[in-house]
Amino acid sequence: MADVLSAMSLLVTMIALLYSVWYKEIQDEVELKPLRMSANRTGQIAGVKRTLRTRSLPLAAASMLLLLVLVPELMAVIQSALRAVSSGLSGSWPRYDTLAAVFLVAYSFLVGLAGLAVRQVLDLRRKLADLQGPDL
User: What does the alpha-carbon distance between residue 45 and residue 19 come to, in Å, rounded to a whole number?
Assistant: First the structure.
């Protein structure tokens, strides 16, 4: 478990670092105000497509991939917790597993990060559709 937690921490940190570095660029494209004439929006469309392809999609894909890779470990931790609870608490509490608890906290953080990344992909796709629409 310690090796998995170490690897997970490193990868989540890398994703979070990239997210923080690219956040402003992604947000600027999401908040972009379309030009009135659709013919004049080619630069805006290119910028949104570039940000979507080179920033937002890679972040969402990396975070979702890491979530999927860690599912077996997550299931093992949940199964262990359920086994401890189902064995009954009549005698004494089961031994507290700090690594499992930290893993769950880190996984929860990753779920939030992945959710934000996916939401930004959807926001950029919506912005792209708006930019490709008719004149305002």
Answer: 22
Round to whole Å and give the CA distance between 63 and 33.
29
Taking the C-alpha atoms of residue 70 and residue 63, their distance in angstroms, rounded to an integer, is 11
pLDDT, residue 103, reads: 93
Cα–Cα distance for residue pair 38/41, rounded to 1 Å: 5
Residue of 45, 58, 65, 59 lying closest to 125 (CA atoms): 45
Q: Is 88 left (phi over 0), alpha (psi -120 to 50) or beta?
A: left
Amino acid at the residue 30:
V
* Type and span of the H or E element at 59: helix 57-69
CA torsion angle 16 20 22 25 (round to 10): 150
- pLDDT confidence of residue 114: 97
